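This entry is retained here.
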Amino acid sequence: MGLTGIQIFKLLPKTNCGECGVPTCLAFAMNLASGKAELDACPYVSAEAKEKLSEASAPPIRPVSIGAGGRAFKTGGETVMFRHEKTFYNPTALGVLVTSDTGEAELEKKLAGWNAFQYERVGLNLRPELVALKDVNGDAGAFAGMAKKIALESEFGLVLMSDNPDVLKAGAAASAVKRPLLYAATSANVDAMGALAKEMGLPLAVKADSIDGLMALTTKLTGMGLKDLVLDPGSREPKKVFENNVAVRRAALKAGNRALGFPVITFACEMAANLDMETVLGAMLIAKYAGIVIFSDFRGENLFPLLLERLNIFTDPQRPMTVTQGIYEIGAPNENSPVLITTNFSLTYFIVSGEIEGSRIPSWLLIMDTEGLSVMTAWAAGKFSGDAVASFIKKSGIADKVNHKKIIIPGYAASISGDMEEELPGWEIIIGPRDASLIPKFLKETVK
C-alpha cells in the first residue's frame, strides 16, 4: 500500500536543495505521497532509498504490459475498489477467440471484419485490443503459423492459449513482435510454463480452480523471478466469476495480498451460449474488475456498447474530458461565415460541432477553456462570464478571419450578453438556441 508523506520523508536526503522543484524535502515527500511528483525528480536520493520507495509505492495490483504497436495496452495498476474514490487507470482489454483449426481464408475474413470495428467518440478512437488463439489439436506448426499471421497481418495483440509448453513456445517465437500473453500456467505445468515465460520475457496467465490455488502458483512463479502475471481463478459460472473478481481485488487492495496483486483475465465466451448473453456478462465484467475479457466474436451492436461502457468507467471522474482551446473550422468557412462559441467540455464540443456540420453551413466555432465544464456549469461557476468570454474573443484572433462582428453565444448563457456588449463595442451578440439540436434550424434562419 502507499506510504504517507512522513514515511517517505524519512527516506529522503533532507537537504532541502530545491532542485526537485519545491523548496523542502517534506514538501516533495507530500507531493510523492499524493502522486503529484516522481521520485526521479530528486537528484540525491540514495539507491537503497529508491529501491525501498519504489517497492513500497508500487500499485497493489501490478500493471502488466501486453502487446506492441498501436494496440499495446496495460492492464492492472489499480488502486481503489470504486472509481469515485479516485479513478480506474487501465481500461479492460477486449479480445475475441479463434481456434487453431480455423482455415486461412476464414481467419483473414475474421481479422478484416474485426479490425474494421473502430469508433470515433469524443475525439477518441474506441476499438478492441486482442485476439486469443486457442490450440485445439496440439499441432505446434499450425499454431505457430496462425500466430505469425495474426501478428504480422493485423494490429491486434495476442493471447496464446495451450496446455502444451512446446506449442506455446512455437507460437510465441512466431509472434514475438507482438509480445503475446501466454496462457496458462497450471499446477500440472507450472515449472515448464514459468521457465518459458522467463526465457522469452513474456507475461504469463495463471489458472487454478480456486483463489487459494492461484496464490500457491503465483507465489511459486514470483519466486522464479516472474512479475508480469495475469490471474484466471478458473470458474466459468457467472456468479462465481463475479465473486472471485471481487475477492481478488479486495485481497490485493485491502489486505495487501501480493500473491493476488495481479490483473484478472475472464472468458465470457465460455460463460454463455450466445453472443448477446456474452455481452451482458461482459458489461458486468468490465465494471467489476476484469483486466481482460474474451468473447466468441465481435459484432458492432455488441461491441460498441461495451466500448462506451468502458470509456465511461475508465474516465477520471475528477478530470472532465476536454478539447484544446482555439478556433475550429467546420466545413470550409470564409470571411462571411457565422461565428459561434462554446466551452471546451469534450461532449459539448462534439455535440455542437456535429450539429453545425449537420446544418451544412460552414462556420467558425470558438472553443473557450472552462476547465472541462459544460456551458451551464461553467456559467454558474463564473468561468463563462461575459467579461471572460469577451476577453477570449479579443485574444482569439477571430476578428482577423471574418469581415463582420457577430458572435452567437449558447442560449443557456444568454445573461452574459450585456457584459459582452460592454466589453466588445461594435459587436452584435446573438443569443443562440438552448438545445444543440436546434442549431441547424437556427443557422438556416439566421444566416442569410
Observations:
- Residues 238-254 form the longest helix (17 residues).
- The longest strand covers residues 93-99.
- The radius of gyration is 27 Å.
- Residues 326-446 form a domain with the Rossmann fold fold (CATH 3.40.50.11600).
